[in-house]
Amino acid sequence: MIVIKVGGGKDLNIDAIVADIVTLRGAGRELLLVHGGAETTNEVAEALGHPPEFVTSESGYVSRRTDRRTLEIFEMVYCGQLNKRWVEKLQTAGVNAVGLSGLDGRVFEGTRKETLRVRIDGKRMVLRDDWTGTVERVNTHLLRTLLDAGYFPVLTPPGASDKGEAINVDGDRAAAMVAAAFHAEALIILSNVPGLLRAFPDESSLIREIPKAKANDFMQFAEGRMKKKVMGAVEAIDEGVHKVIFADGRVEAPISAALAGGGTQIG
Fold first, then answer.
1. What is the model's pTM?
2. Closest among 8, 20, 56 to 255, alpha carbons compared
3. pLDDT, tens digit (0-9, with 9 covering 90-100), for 88-142
4. Which has the closest alpha carbon to 157: 169, 145, 165?
């Protein structure tokens, strides 16, 4: 099993990713796809008059402030526009894709955070009207049923709380939990950079290899969204995933390139 997480950047080569999925599945590789869509969500939220708000946790991680209206916009973009775009492209390429959010069948399940402790303008605040959580369980039975029947699951946030509520979950960490649940050979995280950079945004400063035991030490080089990606990688490694690869989603055959040693290899 190889789990592929694709970010939501518009400069990603989606057609190349789809073509590579077709090639690898044709060669007998078992794959699962998880996708994001933050960039498009931000644009739609602005257009709808409910611009995105980001908050920083006390531990220094930036996340989307998710009130109920933001959650509705999030679902509209992730589950509707973007998920069905992936499904359509895969279907056109001959892959019988099935699009699911983590809420469907509780594919991604976790606990909603009753309160969120953040810093805004240097002040500590507690947010209560927030719909976020962390994936703790993956419905592998549903996904295995689809895979064994010849379908290709295309997964996206949100997830489901233990009470069945929709919750905004981080896509990279959700993909890490999927990879862990399937004891995956590899988790490949594709984005609009060639991998983890020692001196962001200098792409020539690519870190090519990171030993498993030292993965957490490289958090210092992660900027912005890459922090959550490194966090997800560390969680996947801790849960027994053989290898995690940060790779370039803008190139031809990006998954195959990652499996051949490209990007940042953790393992």
1. 0.94
2. 20
3. 999 999 999 999 999 999 999 999 988 888 877 778 888 888 999 999 999 999 9
4. 169
